[in-house]
Design a protein that fits this description.
The protein has helices at residues 3-22, 43-59, 61-64, 87-101, 110-125, and strands at residues 71-74, 78-80, 105-106, 145-157, 161-174, 180-193. It is an alpha/beta fold and 194 residues long.
């Protein structure tokens, strides 16, 4: 083998190695940009649901007419669709937007309660903290209202089209009376063609 062939194959081998090691090209996109990869639930749906429900809830009488920011708790949204949807992300986004408004305060939810109890036990039963700095048990505030909801879908497909209809429902329930004080829904329809 002559030197030219060895040099050529060496360059070719190095080039192939560099291409194989370079990996996929990554770039940042607009987090608020419309995501249209497929008809499944996605980031645009999450943003539309959270913004619509937050705006409507903040305009509701129990929230907007309250002199003090009411205490609420947020239950995890029930997923009634046929696809996997992390509904905690929906509730977290709604809670964040509601808290930013300053019009509501949140009491710990059922899923967060054990962490709260563990923290109170740690402060009160370990003997590690100065008595004047300990959060006392029996002083937690109950929520006046709870927010709960669900997301459901209807999917229709044929060989050329997939049509998905989502409906997201949210309710504000008075914990003392058990009355539903506010309810709203957000509908989304997505169609993918081949």
């Amino acid at each position: 083998m002559n030197a030219r062939k060895i040099t050529f194959f060496s360059v070719l081998l190095c080039s192939a190695f560099l291409i194989a090691c370079s990996g996929p090209q990554v770039r940042y996109g607009d987090a608020k940009g419309v995501e249209t990869v497929n008809a499944n639930y996605g980031s645009t749906d999450l943003q539309m649901i959270a913004e619509s429900m937050t705006r409507s809830l903040l305009q509701s009488k129990p929230i907007s007419a309250s002199k003090d920011a009411p205490r609420v708790t947020l239950a995890e949204v029930k997923n009634k669709t046929s696809e996997y949807i992390d509904t905690t992300v929906i509730t977290d986004k709604i809670r964040t937007q509601l808290l930013k408004s300053g019009q509501v305060r949140f009491a710990v939810s059922i899923s967060e309660m054990q962490n709260q109890v563990d923290e109170l036990k740690r402060q009160n039963q370990t003997g590690l903290y100065k008595s004047g700095t300990i959060s006392k048990t029996g002083n937690m505030q109950g929520a006046q209202y709870r927010i709960e909801g669900s997301i459901a879908s209807i999917v229709k497909t044929n060989k050329d089209v997939k049509d998905v209809y989502y409906v997201f429902n949210l309710n504000l329930i008075d914990n003392e009376s058990g009355l539903i004080e506010w309810a709203d829904e957000k509908e989304i329809r997505k169609t993918a063609t081949r």
